[in-house]
Amino acid sequence: MIDIPADATVHHLLIESRSVPTYCCLINDTELDDGLSWYHDIYHFLRLGAYPEAATTKDKRALRQLVAQFMICGETLYRRSTDGMLLLCLDRTSADRVMREVHVGVYGPHMGGHMLARKIMRTGYFWLTMETDCYQFVQRCLECQVQEDLIHVPPSELHALTSLWPFSVRGIDIIGKISPKSSIGHEFILVAIDYLTKWMEAASYARLTSSRVAGFIRSHIIYRYEVPHELILDRGVHFIAEVDILVQRYGIRHHRSSAYRPQTNRAVEAANKNIKRILRKLIETSQDWSEKLPFALWAYRTSFCTSIGATPYSLVYDMEARFDQLNLLDESRLRAADHVCAYQRKMACAFKKRVKPKPLQIGDLVLKVIRGLIRDPRGKFRPNWSGPYFIRELTPEGAAWLMDLDGNLFSEPTNVDRLKRYYV
């Protein structure tokens, strides 16, 4: 503690705190404080040779070094560029007008921030925070935001789905329409996979409706094995109506993946890929794939699966090709469950390296990726993003519930990797 005499006059120190360094501030920030342009001290020194009143020795030395790049012609301040060109120095109002004209004017190609700054300099203009201001201007441009390329960097960590008991969790998906049709007119393959053993069931159909999906669940899953605790489906029209009635009747927990989010049901998506690869190698003609489907299933079930460290057949029947190992069944299944967890940790660690977090918060304005077969008169020139929307709720798993500007709520959540911040 410092003792201060009672009769001493203590002057308060006023300290301005900024969230970013001063050199990162926009031109607006640097000119709003005292109402003077950024080049006022430079112009004053070149015209009168006088320093600012509160300048220290260090400030004076920095000013002398800085003004060497500037000159006054008539009453106008210019900056000398490295190629000898004189660049007209602009204040805040003029800089905003030039950025808008060059970026969105008649000849404005909506270029990025760096290219915008370079083009303005080639046009013959300059201000001290040109590149930062150009980046911020482009960031707030509505046309640039909705037409920006889609984002492929994951914004959140991988949340792996797993099961610790055989046939407890099933994922179901559809392959199709398949062209050409099979010899019996089938165009679809309905695939179901167990999340622990990776045991796959599949059947082909000419037409696929919710009643046929419900029949597949009964005949290929419930009647053959047991009632699963959970089913993971996407939001297709084939998985509503009678499927909803079926899962309610048997008390099955029903999870729907987000729209255009195949990563949610990654296990069955990987199974689809494997089945298609096996079928391509088995078929003799392009129309006998439905006849080869049972052989493809057998090949898949008896093949070593990296994610579980065993074959699906061995985990279900506890034997490999006629070698009975009944006493080792529990050990094999526990080892498979442990292998699944270890494999998922490995995949999550690799996935985490590519994660680029998005600092989105409730109440933020965002744009949403336009996906799917949406008819739009603009065709190829349709924007990649729609919005803006408000974030109403965020989940720990990386999903967001949205609301439009009129207060209408979205009926389905959207993964944050389909969103990006909207700047105004």
From TrEMBL:
GO terms for biological process: DNA integration. It comes from the Eukaryota. Residues 162-320 form the Integrase catalytic domain. Signal peptide: none annotated. GO terms for molecular function: nucleic acid binding. PROSITE patterns: INTEGRASE. It holds the Pfam family Integrase_H2C2. This is Gypsy retrotransposon integrase-like protein 1. The lineage of its organism: Eukaryota, Viridiplantae, Streptophyta, Embryophyta, Tracheophyta. The gene is GIN1_59.
